[in-house]
Specification:
Blueprint (H helix, E strand, L loop, with lengths): L1 H12 L19 H4 L5 E4 L4 E6 L2 E2 L7 E2 L14 H4 L5 E4 L4 E4 L13 E2 L10
Antiparallel strand pairs: 1-2, 1-4, 2-3, 5-6, 5-7
Length: about 130
């Protein structure tokens, strides 16, 4: 009986949801902006260098002087290795034929050679 009790307590300790309001606590284990903003329920607090639970309106149970949600404004576009994360940034777009994230100028023109370029969404994917 004692062994079973230890297993149950051990399992509870590894939960990724807080018990008070069902907010993911996995955000706090992330240590950089790029990984943090990949999760809808996390925001990156730049000055505090911390990933915390939040959404587009900001942190939920924390305070930040400024925060990033869905993209990192200080990261260069070539930092993003996937279309979904690349196209979240208003300063980046995805080059389909070369599978790379390119920066754009003020008119939305890619800075680099690319015949099939997309910004704000990925080809064949709805709701990103």
């Amino acid at each position: 009986l004692l062994v079973c009790l230890v297993v149950v307590v051990s399992g509870l300790r590894n939960e990724t949801v807080s018990t008070d309001n069902k907010i993911p606590t996995a955000c706090t284990s992330i240590t950089n902006c790029g990984k943090c903003v990949m999760f809808q329920d996390c925001v990156w607090c730049g000055e505090e260098t911390a990933c915390v639970a939040g959404n587009a309106d900001g942190p939920i149970d924390s305070e930040c002087n400024s925060y990033e949600h869905q993209f990192c404004s200080d990261e260069p576009c070539n930092f993003y290795a996937a279309c979904a994360t690349c196209t979240r940034s208003p300063w980046c777009g995805w080059c389909v034929e070369s599978n790379e994230c390119l920066s754009v100028d003020l008119r939305g023109t890619p800075n680099g050679e690319c015949e099939f370029f997309t910004q704000g969404h990925c080809p064949g994917v709805i709701g990103i």
